[in-house]
Amino acid sequence: MPCCHAGLRSQYLPITMAPSATARYRQLLARRHGALVRLTLFGSRLRRGLDGTVGIRVTW
Q1: CB of 15 closer than 8 Å to CB of 21
Q2: Can you tell which superkingdom this protein's organism belongs to (predicted)?
């Protein structure tokens, strides 16, 4: 079981998304947040490729 930086153990659920869904979320982020996100995604793409971007969806 993985633990956080404080040593607390927690459950996690590994999730993978389809490449088309990942591309869609990148486009939505870039459209919503503008130039800063576009530059960040571009830098991420250069360093790690398209598979290096991770998205986290938080729901309440």
Answers
A1: no
A2: Bacteria
Tell me, rounded to whole angstroms, the distance of Cα 50 from its chain centroid.
11
Burial 8-28 (b: 16+ CB within 10 A, else e): eeeeeeeeeeeeeebeeebee
The total of other beta-carbon atoms located within 10 Å of residue 57's CB is 7
Phi-psi region of 34 (alpha: psi -120 to 50; beta: other; left: phi over 0): left
**Could you tell me which residues come within 8 angstroms of residue 11 by beta carbon, excluding any fewer than 6 positions away?**
1
Condensed to tens digits (0 to 9), the pLDDT of residues 39-60 reads 988 988 898 887 777 666 666 6
Nearest to 17 by CA among 58, 59, 55, 60: 55
Q: Which two tokens stand for residue 21?
A: 């869904």
